[in-house]
Amino acid sequence: MNEFLDIALPYRRKRTFGASSFALIFVTIVIEVELLALVALGIIGHRFDLFVDLQPVVFPSACGIALAASAVFWWRARQWTRNRVQMLNLWAGGGSDASDHVAEARPPD
Length: 109
Description:
Mean pLDDT: 79
Order of helices and strands: HHHHH
Distance between the termini: 50 Å
Helix content: over 70%
Strand content: under 5%
Largest sheet: none
Structural class: mainly alpha
Low-confidence stretches: none
Number of helices: 5
Shape: elongated
Number of strands: 0
């Protein structure tokens, strides 16, 4: 379970959002879209046969949605993860709080 959390939340190990995190998000979204289609057609609509017949359309659509969403999340998570790792490094550096490090980083007046 710990390895799964390291992939889903890479900043815990001071890592950036990488290919394994991208793949995890992609697969999760594909499964969610497929389950949504299954629930809508198979369970609520009582047309499981229609769900199976529409797989040549539903699966590529789910992959396209997942690819777009994963790419946007990766694009946004790069900066967010980089900032998160910097903050973790700042806090791990010691001192009473982050303001000490900010004050040291400022150029003298």
